[in-house]
Structure formats: C-alpha cells, structure tokens
C-alpha cells in the first residue's frame, strides 16, 4: 500500500495580509521598523533587524517594538479564531529569530469587554505574558503603570514590549489615553504607561 503525502497547510494571502497589518500597527520605540516576518506553514517567525541608531544604542527600543509586534500577531490570530502557541527559540545559528507563533487549531472567538467597573485592575489583568509584571505606581496624581521583568536579557525586554502593548490596547479599548515613557526608570522596569481618564484611586505597587 502506497503512503500518501500530506501537505502542510499554508497561510492564505488574506491571512498573510492580516499578519502584516497587525505587525505594522505596533508602535515604534526606536526609529524605523526593526522586524521582519517569515510566514511558513501555519506559523509565522518574527525576526529582529539589528539596526543601530544613536537614540537606541542598546537596542532596548528595538526589542520593545518587536515585543509590540509579537503581541499584535498573537492578538490578531486569536481574534481570527486560532489557538496560538508561542515559542521563543534560543538558536545560536539564528540569533535574530525572536519568536515563532504557530496556529495549532481553531477556537471560539473570545468575547471582548468586561463587566468590572474598576478600570485599573482590568488594565493590569490585560497582560498575560509570562515573566512580566504590570503594576501601578504612585506618581502624585496621574495613573502610571510600570512594566517590568525579573531579568534583563533580550528575551525579557521582548516580553516587556508584548506586555506593554497588551495594556496599551486594553486602555484604547476602554476609551482611555495611554502615553508611553521610557526613562529614567528603576532597574528591570522597561517602560511606563501613563493613563488619562481614570478617576479611581490606585495603590502604590
């Protein structure tokens, strides 16, 4: 009995367009678009373009930008009804490969919105990226959130960028204005997010 060869499903042109538009809508924190996508099968690889600039000598802004792209890709695929697995390879042969997102099956599209009247906990809970923390800090009146990680590796900064974008998008969904700041900040805090339009009291983290 002859075996049959099963072809790996590929993204359609409309799905590739969805991924590209999601990536391009991510904010830029360092000048230019320091990323490139490589769709293959039912996965998409995110690569960093190692551009150097005077304003971003350490590449922090570049990695935060790529983290925003990572979150946008993940959110777009889930909104399209896909279950998504994210891997963060540590491949010495491909040091610029930051992440691979694979669509591993269909799922029901999640309902948007929240019934929680307290806005601040909703913003904090919007972050689901492992190894990151979003916490409110007291800055003397304004509502500010710090996005931090335990470490300071490239992976940490990438995930901080994803967490930052998750909270930014939730703030926009709630009709709030969120402004990103990058320094000076405490160690392992990669960005701050000042949110306008929240009147509720918030604890210092």
Summarize it.
The protein is an alpha+beta fold and 205 residues long. It has helices spanning 13-24, 60-79, 119-125, 154-173, and strands spanning 35-40, 43-48, 82-87, 97-106, 132-138, 143-149, 177-181, 189-196.
Q: Mind explaining what this structure looks like?
A:
The chain has helices at about 15-25, 60-80, 120-125, 155-175, and strands at about 35-40, 45-50, 80-85, 95-105, 130-140, 145-150, 175-180, 190-195. The strands form two sheets. A four-stranded antiparallel beta sheet has the order 1-2-4-3, with helices on one face. A four-stranded antiparallel beta sheet has the order 5-6-8-7, covered by helices on one side. With about 200 residues, it is of the alpha+beta class. The termini are far apart. The model is unreliable at about 1-5 (pLDDT under 50). It folds into two domains: about 15-105, 3-Layer(aba) Sandwich (NADH Oxidase); about 120-195, Gyrase A, domain 2, CATH 3.30.1360. It has four helices and eight strands.
Observed structural traits:
single chain, 205 residues, alpha+beta, NADH Oxidase, Gyrase A, domain 2, 2 domains, 4-stranded antiparallel sheet, 29% helix, 27% strand
General shape: globular
- Span between termini: 66 Å
CATH topology-level name of the largest domain: NADH Oxidase
Instruction: Identify the CATH class of the largest domain.
Output: Alpha Beta
Average predicted local confidence, pLDDT: 87
Q: Which SSEs are present, and which pair or pack?
A:
Blueprint: H1 13-24, E1 35-40, E2 43-48, H2 60-79, E3 82-87, E4 97-106, H3 119-125, E5 132-138, E6 143-149, H4 154-173, E7 177-181, E8 189-196
Antiparallel strand pairs: 1-2, 2-4, 3-4, 5-6, 6-8, 7-8
């Amino acid at each position: 009995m002859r075996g049959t060869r099963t072809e790996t499903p590929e993204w359609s042109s409309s799905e590739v367009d969805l991924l590209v538009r999601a990536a391009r809508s991510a904010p830029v924190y360092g000048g230019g678009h320091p990323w490139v996508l490589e769709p293959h099968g039912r996965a998409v690889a995110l690569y960093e373009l190692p551009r150097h600039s005077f304003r971003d000598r350490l590449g922090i802004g570049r990695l935060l930008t790529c983290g925003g792209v990572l979150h946008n890709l993940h959110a777009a695929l889930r909104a399209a009804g896909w279950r998504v697995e994210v891997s963060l390879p540590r491949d010495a042969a491909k040091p610029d490969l930051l992440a691979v997102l694979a669509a591993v099956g269909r799922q029901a599209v999640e309902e948007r919105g929240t019934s929680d009247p307290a806005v601040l906990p909703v913003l904090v809970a919007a972050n689901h990226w492992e190894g990151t923390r979003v916490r409110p800090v007291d800055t003397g009146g304004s509502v500010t959130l710090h996005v931090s990680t335990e470490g300071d590796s490239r992976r940490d900064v990438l995930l901080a960028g994803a967490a930052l974008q998750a909270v930014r998008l939730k703030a926009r969904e709630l009709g709030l204005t969120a402004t990103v700041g990058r320094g000076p900040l405490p160690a392992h805090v990669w960005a701050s997010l000042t949110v306008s339009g929240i009147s509720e009291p918030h604890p210092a983290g």
